[in-house]
Amino acid sequence: MSQNYVFQEEETSPIDFGRILGAAKRRYVFFLIPFLTILVVCIGVILFLKPVYESTGTILVETQQIPSDLIQSSITSDANQRITIIKQRVMTRGNLLQIIDKFDVFGADRQRLPVSELIERMQEQININVITSEVSGNRRGSTTIAFQLSFDHENPKIAANVANELITLFLSENVKTRTARATETTAFLNSETQKLRDALTKTENDIVAYKQKYRDALPEHLDLRLRMLERSETDLREYIREIRALEEEKRYLQIELTAAKTGRTGSGGEIVQSELQENIETLKKELLDASTRLTESHPNIKALKKRIVALEQQQLEEDKNAARLAASEGSAAGSTYNPLLEKLEIRIESIDGKISEGRRQIEKAKRKVAEIEAIIIEIPQVERGLSVLNRTYGDILEKFNVLESKQAQAQLSQNLEEDKKAERFILLEPPIVPTEPVRPDRLKIMGIGSFLAFAAGAGFVVLIELLDQRIRSASELEAILKHPPIVSIPYIVTPTEMGKRRTKLVLYILAPFMFVIVALVAVHFLYQPLDTLFYKAWVALDKLRISLL
């Protein structure tokens, strides 16, 4: 009955725990060999890897203390960009070599390795982590509020010293860069302002010289020249009118003189008009009367004018004949004194003098009018040239005013930087000597190594078991013969084997305790001291208790 029960159990159970346990008892040596080998290798790796300590300092990017609406800083670059630039300035070959020699960063490798490799290793050990804050809820609107600078080294003191030195260089380089840039901006604007000031002075001198050259034809004197031209033309017309009046008077005196010479004067010396002259005067009166009623093209007007001209021509011929006759009679009668003739001749001579003087004045007035007209014609050209100079002066003046305003703004920005009121870097947390290494993660390596050791041991046992062709159970025999065995004889245990089993049992009981002890020793010496872990666990439990309360 017991045999049938065993067979049914083997057929119904999906996992043969008995076979597994039996294999474990038989093959534990094959399990321990790869398990211990890999575990020892893992421990060796942990012991071989040197601990690396990281010392980190935090620098706060403090915004400008004075509102930017009042004073605009000349440094407009983003803090992240400025950190990158300062990093390139600080991490130069000279600075890094100086730090390496100052703190003996690489020890004996300093003399053995080339400088380029030392610089590359130094740069790899420096880490900068920028801390940003998203202003508008997206990445594009983020702003840099701080950054962390750290240095990795096997010696925690060297890591802290180098990190402090790098942070000092960052802070000083930031102040120096900002002040230098503000000073350069102010100097550049001063230079440009001085250039525009010189250009303004030169343009002013050009305008003065231009006005001095064309002082008679300046546009602002146009009204004066027009008034002068009008006055000169008025004088010219007045001279012409006077000349005409004098010529008319002269003609009248000549008539009187002719009348006096021909004896057509009255007892009082007045001229006795002939019939021809009376007709002329009558026709003139008729013409004057008709002109008030008729136009110039009227036939009566034209006829009156022709008759007047004909009679005047006739009167002129008669006067000439009378004058010649008087001259011949006078020469025949001798030189008889006539005071009227002398008076008339003196007046005619005086009028001739006035006429000559009037004609000189006319010529002078004409020249003056011509000069003024030439000046007036030249004024538009002068105005165009003066407009070009004034436009140039205005453009330069506008640029000068803008640049002068920027110069004042740049000077304020420079004062802002020198007084350290602008955006600046503040050391928030200085680097300290680290107490725990950041690499390697020994607990993680140990966990992975243990898993791999167990898997390798188990796999090796399974492999050996599969290669072993011996039959160790009735189910295996049935699987081969395709028929169940007739009878099964159980294994008979001898007293000696019983003693060995008791010894193994004791060892099995003591093995976990030994394993725990070895693990604690390994953790104490390879990871962290047990008192430290105990303290951390105590603190964690205390925090958990407080949170639960």
Notes on the structure:
The structure is a single chain. The chain is 72% helix and 7% strand. Strands 2-3-1-4 form a 4-stranded antiparallel β-sheet. β2 and β3 form a beta hairpin. The longest helix is centred in the C-terminal third of the chain and has 80 residues. The two termini are 62 Å apart.
CA-CA gap between termini: 62 Å
Proportion of residues in extended strands: 5-15%
In which range does the helix fraction lie?
over 70%
Oligomeric organization of the protein chains: single chain
**What general outline do the C-alpha atoms trace?**
rod-shaped
Strand count, sense and barrel status of the largest sheet are:
4 strands, antiparallel
State mean pLDDT (0 to 100 scale): 84
The helix count comes to 15
Strand order in space, largest sheet = 2-3-1-4
N to C succession of SSEs: HHEHHHHEEHHHHHEHHHH
Number of strands: 4
Coiled coil: 193-375
Keywords: Coiled coil, Membrane, Transmembrane, Transmembrane helix
Transmembrane segments: 28-49, 445-467, 505-527
Protein name: Lipopolysaccharide biosynthesis protein
